[in-house]
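Dear H.,

Thanks for agreeing to be a second pair of eyes. The structure we're designing against is below in token form, covering all 291 positions.
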């Protein structure tokens, strides 16, 4: 028998992209048992599009959040967790989070689930993010890593997700995906991303100003997770070798430095802080030995 998997998608005014996302999931050779699409008070055609497909496919459910609340990264996590809570008592073996602006090949989940079947220690997996380049072709994102799974397509074995906490941990500056994968490794689960499973990301990255603000925010997120300063410097120095990322790396370092100067509160547990710093220290040691 095929293992059952469920999906959750948080959507806020995703009318431009979400129909393609829905169509790519509907077209899977191995469909989910349930898919909760949580519309976070969308005011565009998001709800209308989802309802159209929910009427045709019984595994799709629209969950609408109507109350007013701040628009931040914690709100997105809250929307995902709302969708998760509504399927807590369901019978499933795998759980996946999907962003509302991606598309997947028809055999994506079939191939991904086979990787979980082949590796019983695989707790968190997903594909590589592909983005449209200047020539209009989709190419693998340079930041893709086989040891990290992007938030847009994180897929958990249920036992691993329960060990992570059974929900996403809300962080003020984002990075719930990083928190989840670190806790998965803390609990001795494998975390792997697969380059042979493309996940096409369709949202335009936006203006240079938006890009720099996002990089600054990522720096603050790095600090909130407990990232070692030397690790942050080494990571951003390596990224700066690629000229397009120089300014972004400086903005991210500025965000980290700002949080350091104001002694920003770190909301993560002490055990998490110790583990991520141990991982980072080991990676720095390996990097030094290699050079």
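And this is the sequence the design step returned. I haven't edited it by hand at all.
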């Amino acid at each position: 028998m095929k293992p059952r998997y469920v999906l959750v998608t948080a959507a806020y005014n995703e009318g431009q992209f979400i129909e393609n996302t829905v169509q790519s999931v509907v077209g899977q050779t191995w469909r989910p048992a349930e898919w909760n699409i949580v519309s976070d008070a969308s005011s565009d055609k998001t709800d209308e599009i989802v309802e159209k497909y929910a009427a045709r496919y019984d595994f799709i459910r629209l969950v609408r959040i109507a109350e007013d609340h701040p628009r931040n990264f914690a709100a997105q996590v809250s929307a995902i967790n709302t969708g998760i809570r509504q399927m807590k008592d369901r019978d499933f073996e795998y759980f996946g989070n999907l962003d509302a602006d991606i598309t997947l090949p028809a055999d994506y989940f079939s191939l991904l689930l086979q990787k979980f079947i082949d590796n019983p220690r695989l707790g968190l997996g997903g594909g590589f993010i592909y983005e449209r380049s200047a020539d209009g072709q989709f190419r693998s994102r340079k930041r893709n890593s086989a040891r990290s799974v992007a938030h847009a397509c994180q897929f958990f074995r249920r036992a691993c997700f329960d060990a992570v906490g059974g929900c996403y941990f809300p962080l003020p500056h984002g990075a719930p995906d990083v928190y989840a994968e670190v806790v998965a490794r803390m609990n001795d689960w494998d975390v792997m991303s697969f380059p042979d499973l493309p996940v096409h990301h369709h949202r335009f990255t936006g203006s240079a100003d938006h890009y720099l603000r996002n990089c600054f925010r990522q720096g603050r997120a790095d600090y909130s997770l407990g990232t070692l300063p030397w690790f942050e410097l080494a990571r951003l120095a390596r990224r700066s070798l690629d000229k397009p990322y120089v300014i972004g790396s400086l903005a991210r370092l500025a965000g980290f430095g700002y949080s350091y100067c104001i002694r920003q509160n770190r909301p993560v547990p002490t055990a998490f802080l110790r583990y991520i710093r141990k991982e980072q220290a080991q990676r720095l040691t390996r990097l030094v030995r290699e050079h």
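Two observations from my side: The chain has a mean pLDDT of 92. The CA atoms of residues 24 and 103 lie 6 Å apart.

Warmly,
E.
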